[in-house]
Amino acid sequence: MHVGLIGGIGVAATLVYYQRLTARCAAAGVVPEITIVHADVQELIRNNLADDRAAQAQSNARLLARLADAGCDLAAITSLGGHFCFAETQAISPLPLVSAVTPLDDHFVAQGLGSVGLLGTRVVMQTRAYGQLARTRALAPDDRLDEVGQRYQDMAVAGRCTPEDRAFFFRTAAVLMDRGAEAIVLAGTDLNLAFDGSTDPGYPVIDALDVHVDLLARLASGPDALSPDRP
Q: Where does the chain cross the membrane (predicted)?
């Protein structure tokens, strides 16, 4: 199946999606069809902070129309923060949308995890992944939501992680582990800039991006691989 990606939110996350998706497909012996459109990260940030779901959904719909015109069979938003208007976008999308949030609860349960710590945008942390973790207890740095969310946003826009940023996120995650998390979930697609494997943080880390990419790779393998979320 031809996979469409709404990218650019941010650029670093888009590159990782492309790299990991093509690697998964190559391992399965599949040459995928992938088309990427570039979204405006600043527009997304403004709409997210204002909780203007309708405006962002309309912007997404214009990009999805371009992906449909390119022949895509389905599409995905390469940002967990961008999922704040997923339902509104899904309702007007010309293509089936594959959620990055819906598969997470099943994945955590399959891994035997009862409690996870979330790092990401303020909204993702505050809503505990949009309230979609029904069987997994989610912890967030509630006393520092604004600070963590802003730090993450700045890193995502810059597309790079400073040593100070990395140390900050590692410390924040360690506090969540002390509070009872069994693993830290990178619930922000640009957090791979900090948790890039170059330094062992000393606790288990799950990149939500990988869960999404695994699902997209299965769908890219053929029309019968899995049925995506449809409007």
A: none
